[in-house]
Amino acid sequence: MSTTNQNTDNRPVGIDLFAGAGGLSLGFEQAGFDIAAAVEIDPIHCATHEFNFPNSKAVCASVVEMTGAEVRRQARLGDTDIDVVFGGAPCQGFSMMGKRALDDQRNQLVFHYVRLVAELRPKFCVFENVKGLTLGKHAQFLDELIVALGDAGYSVLLPYRVLNAADFGVPQDRRRLFLIGARRDQTMPTYPDPAKHKITVWDAIGDLPDADQFPELADLDSVATTWTSESTYARRMRGLACDPSNFGYGRSFDVGALTSSLRTEHTALSQQRFLATENGETEPISRFKKLHPDGLCNTLRAGTDSARGAFTSPRPIHPFLPRVITVREAARLHSYPDWFRFHTTKWHGFRQIGNSVPPLLGRAVASQIMTSLGLTPIKPQQVFQSGDVKLLTFQMWAASQHFGVAKNVIAQRTRKQFIDERTKAIEEAYA
Q: Pairing relation of β-strands 223-224 and 257-258?
């Protein structure tokens, strides 16, 4: 067996840490990178990544347990000079008097991100996180991270920036911090310039068939149908129009399949409230925002994970229909193409989207690194078949078994009683 990764198009190589379903993976692929490995602790998310990126090694493990040498071994990289390592490690603890934030056990994932960057020695590194990390005492944590990267041999592009996905072709108001580091023998990138115009909610989802018209979608997340797409954005998401800045691999998929579209049943009362709410306003009982067709989607959030109660984050109301949006509609609003599929359950599907970086935002940042590498990206001729669809149906025990990890690597989902009126309303809306 070969000890090096097979890269027939001689594309630069990236490693995704904290990969989730693969928003940053896709953004970097579309900028012209090959994603050699994606490290993700959650077997459910790891299975989704494996389905969508058949040419990438999905490593189901915690970064705490990984070494740079092990990442190289699993990705079959040998001694290849890695071009970029990227990822968004969760940050939960902040410095107290006389204590460094990176010494806080709650921030061990960030510490191990820096450690893996130091061990892998990529030409560039990208750290993505919440915009709040730049504010108040949180900024001290960021300062410590910059010093730690400096100690590892990386200069950081300053001043750091919070980028809004809406400025880069994503129909969503979503602001995220991006910290870009360059190995000291490399040319420092710049931050990307905003696009000239914004994409609206209706540009993104106006062509999608109404999931409620398909009885099959009460139990399944996919149905065969036909429809017409007119906006350039929608046609690019379906693979019907050329996207000149997309240098990702083609995917073989059925453009007549409406996927990731499991229906949400609402009571008649909820539907009346949704219809009565003005576009762009918040429905007062559920506190769901009703999308304006000519505006941007509000930030799509993931809700809490299993260990923190598995609370569902509020989902926006469709601009014209008396229901919340589907996973596919959320994916369109996040700039995921239609070939990209998510776990078949709404809970996991929405979490996978809400936790991820919009691919078009990731692509904008990755393109700047490609420029600093002095490379001209080339669209590969190879077209990939997606993985086995059963990867999208796994329950935790099956996903854990697939990757050979303990089934309790992620705390199991628990049901809790909600006592406040707002949460009762959310439960009723999703009944």
A: antiparallel
